[in-house]
Amino acid sequence: LESSDVTPSMKIAALRTLSYTLKTLGEVPLEFKELFDSTIVAAVSHSSQLVRIEAALALRVLAEVDPTCVGGLISYVVTTLSASRDNVSFEKGKQSEKIELDSLNGQTTVLAALVSISPKLPLGYPARVIILV
User: What PANTHER family is this protein classified in (predicted)?
Assistant: First the structure.
């Protein structure tokens, strides 16, 4: 997924396959947990909106399968959202503006996906997460 010669369609297919595999297994193998986190989180800021949406859905499945990661994911997203919001400049024509807006859009999509699974979380959200949001 992190290779430069992979097209957005290939990334979407890989993320869907990963989501399906996680849902089918019902757990995240410990040796792959960090790899999944970093790979999916990197896709959240992709230039293609469809890749960002699929990455958010994959993180949602990851959170459903492993509810212990919800607190960390939401903390990460809120921190990144705050940083992205502060970095967005509204000067027209800047290429960096599009990258920053893509990242901001990806983070908000992830936050929405994680909030949508709240009824499925056995213990709800950690109290410290609610304070952040």
Answer: PROTEIN SWEETIE
